[in-house]
Specification:
Length: 187
């Protein structure tokens, strides 16, 4: 089942990144990467067409309290959301508590291992502090870049499920899972 999450006031540090809730003052940084063709489509959303569009999504990020901004060298360069997974596709997980993560990074920052660094930190937070039993993550079959992040972070592939994108297309999402390795953490 999906577990409740609230990242209000949470700050997670890695060697190069600060992960913290989004702020209204991040708007320009957000638009700078969300408007670039070829970034959002890999995660199922259309590139933003205006600053106003980014402002609306940013308001949702702030209100929903489940999406981290990745701050790198003083700028917000990406997002990592603790999303709701599709419970109808995973009846075998009904007795456990989990969520599904999703992410995107400014194209200028690709290829430096920043997202695996962020994902590993969030895994630690979700298992040790929030005490989830499992974390899911999915990538479209053709998205090799995200597949590599998922492999590097140790997720095991479990199944491929249909995924209706916000662009209205239907994709096949390859799902990976990671279980909390500390049995005592399971509630
Ligand atoms: C997926 C994504 C977050 C990866 O972040 P990252 O910090 O660049 O991850 P890595 O540095 O580990 O690179 C992952 C893979 O991307 C590929 N890659 C690296 N630099 C690249 C570049 N400039 N252009 C295209 N692909 C590149 C490589 O195959 C790399 O794997 P490798 O380390 O085995 O060579 C990023 O590519 C992105 O934001 N993509 C668009 C949104 C998206 O796909 N979200 C995930 C939805 S499931």
């Amino acid at each position: 089942m999906n577990a409740p999450i609230d990242i209000t006031g949470i700050e997670l540090r890695t060697e190069r990144l600060l992960l913290r809730p989004w702020r209204e003052s991040d708007l320009e940084d957000f638009y700078a990467y969300a408007r670039v063709d070829g970034v959002g489509q890999m995660a199922g959303w259309t590139p933003h067409r205006s600053l106003d569009e980014s402002r609306e999504i940013l308001k949702l990020f702030i209100a929903d309290k489940k999406t981290f901004a990745l701050e790198y060298r003083g700028r917000a360069v990406g997002s990592l959301g603790i999303e709701f997974y599709d419970e109808t596709q995973f009846p075998e997980l009904d007795a456990l508590r989990g969520r599904e993560i999703g992410y995107a990074l400014n194209r200028d920052c690709w290829g430096q291992g920043l997202m695996p660094e962020a994902v590993r930190r969030v895994i630690g937070y979700l298992f040790d502090v929030v005490r989830l039993d499992f974390i899911l993550v999915g990538h479209f079959e053709w998205n090799r870049q995200s597949a590599r992040v998922i492999e590097k972070c140790g997720f095991a592939e479990v199944k491929t499920i249909p995924y209706r994108t916000r662009m209205g297309t239907l994709e096949r999402s390859v799902e990976g899972i990671l279980y909390n390795p500390v049995p005592g953490n399971r509630s």
